[in-house]
Design brief:
- Two copies of one chain form a homodimer.
- Chain A is of the alpha+beta class.
- Chain A has three helices and four strands.
- Helices cover about 35% and strands about 40% of the residues of chain A.
- Chain A has a four-stranded antiparallel beta sheet with strand order 2-3-1-4.
- In chain A, helix 1 runs antiparallel to helix 3.
- At the A-B interface, strand 1, helix 1, strand 2, strand 3 and strand 4 of A face strand 1, helix 1, strand 2, strand 3 and strand 4 of B.
Chain lengths: ~100, ~100
């Protein structure tokens, strides 16, 4: 079953630029290396620039699991940890229509 | 500028089926009638079936504004109001990567 992910990150105001640089790298690496990735995008809220969200689509749960254990993903998460203002929210979705 | 929208709805447990029926109709009408609609999908959280999210892409803010004032959208919102367990969250995004 195809899985969609909305991963919201609340980034510290003085860290958004650095976050964006690293998140763009993560987007590039994921698209390039991670099998089963249909869509992987970095979005920024138009009213709140500190809300940076990754919008994802995966062929199935297995593809997503492999992405989560890929080195480029783990490296990005390790870097992101100190940039967060508060915990983010991650939702996995199935498509109804 | 293209706009993406993530509209999260927290629906009462005993109203999710009714919500889904009406939301599917809204998806159909929006795709059929609303110019500038690139993507309009109904998603359900895999762990929390009460979290029903509409994922949208619009050509620009003007297209989104017209959708928000369309009769089928207003009718759907009027119906949805009594189904909500708590206020939802709507985010408008620009794409960085």
């Amino acid at each position: 079953m195809m899985i969609k992910v909305v991963a919201q990150n609340n980034v510290k105001a003085d860290k958004t630029d650095e976050f964006i640089v690293l998140a763009k790298k993560l987007v590039q690496d994921t698209r390039k290396y991670d099998a089963g990735c249909i869509r992987y995008e970095l979005l920024q809220d138009v009213k709140n620039p500190q809300l940076l969200t990754i919008l994802e689509e995966w062929d199935d749960q297995e593809s997503l699991n492999k992405h989560l254990s890929a080195q480029h993903f783990k490296d990005a998460m390790a870097s992101f940890a100190s940039y967060m203002e508060k915990p983010g929210e991650i939702n996995l979705y199935k498509t109804l229509a």
